[in-house]
């Protein structure tokens, strides 16, 4: 714990370069995932997307039926009516009965959100509200194919279903020439999130400093580790050896002690300590053997986070004192935005170390 807080002090003191992280495997495909909604996950995904865009040609996917990730890339324009990730998945399941133009599936981020003009050329595949209904279709097909494998002794049929999203990603990466992939998922495991895990090499887990989020962190790590979990049972039935590892746990909404610079308040420290204990319990699902190397502490972004999520502007591009109107109310970027930027930079460092 003290090592983690010492690092936080260095980050806010502009000394993050002195934090030595071990060299780790470079991953191509990441999924931002948790089993708790309402914690600002998509706003965080959007800000990580901007950081990735500064360094890599990246493909972004929206696997959440609420489509907030898509809305941020569309920059709050009219609802998208073109081909979505749901259409691509249905084409995989239905074949020619559900035909789409795969070359028009991924859209250029810079064409719809000018905030990304200063980065590498990036693309996104829009989400769809139809993903709310997708779990029933997905598991019906999965069980149908599993019946075929138990009769014929061939695991490949189940693998075809579980790898649908992975196949779509590989096709789109080839078409767009992108180097990295970032997937925003829903807080429900069934359907789209299950496929996102199957397609990803590494997971990024946001955890709010509250009781429900701590519980959901343990559920997430348990799902990843336990052989009897739904994720691992289907993976084994498909004969798929690979599974994702945890690359980052991003503790969000940490309270800041106003009386002491650079210190997290007592309530937040308690939840962070519990999250660390859970991570130690499941240490073998992380990409390295020291879980401290995978934790980043992020403040409650207050007005800056609200502006970022409402106006589709990355926090890194917000200036102190700037004012915006959100739902008829004036919102100002306060001086805390300096701290937020440093915290986000370190979070990205964990992912891209």
Compact description:
The chain has 353 residues and is α/β, with parallel strands linked by helices. The chain has 14 helices and 10 strands.
Present the secondary structure layout.
Blueprint lengths: L1 H11 L16 E4 L8 H15 L2 E5 L5 H7 L10 H10 L12 E2 H4 L10 E3 L8 H19 L3 H7 L1 H13 L3 E5 L7 H8 L2 E7 L2 H15 L4 H9 L6 E10 L11 H16 L13 E5 L2 H10 L11 E4 L2 E4 L4 H15 L2
Parallel strand pairs: 1-5, 1-6, 2-4, 2-5, 6-7, 7-8
Antiparallel strand pairs: 3-4, 9-10
Percent strand equals 5-15%
Q: Main beta sheet, described?
A: 8 strands, mixed
CATH domain topology: Rossmann fold
Which CATH C-level class is it?
Alpha Beta
Q: How many strand units? A: 10
Whole-number count of domains: 1
- Order of adjacent strands in the largest pleated sheet: 3-4-2-5-1-6-7-8
* Count of helix runs: 14
Strand-pairing-aware structural class: alpha/beta
Please state the overall shape, judged from the principal axes of the Cα atoms: globular
Domain AAA: 29-224
Pfam family, one: AAA_31
Organism: Roseburia lenta
InterPro entries: AAA_dom (IPR025669), DNA_Partitioning_ATPase (IPR050678), P-loop_NTPase (IPR027417)
Defining key terms:
10 strands, single chain, 353 residues, Rossmann fold, globular, 14 helices, alpha/beta
Description:
The chain is an alpha/beta fold. It has a single domain (2-302), classed as P-loop containing nucleotide triphosphate hydrolases (Rossmann fold), CATH 3.40.50.300. It contains 14 helices and 10 strands. The strands form 2 sheets. It has an 8-stranded mixed β-sheet with strand order 3-4-2-5-1-6-7-8, with helices on both faces. A two-stranded antiparallel ribbon has the order 9-10. The longest helix has 19 residues, at 134-152. It is globular, with a radius of gyration of 20 Å. It starts with a helix and ends with a helix. The model has no long low-confidence stretch (mean pLDDT 93). Residues 29-224 form the AAA domain. InterPro entries: AAA_dom (IPR025669), DNA_Partitioning_ATPase (IPR050678), P-loop_NTPase (IPR027417). It comes from Roseburia lenta. This is ParA family protein.
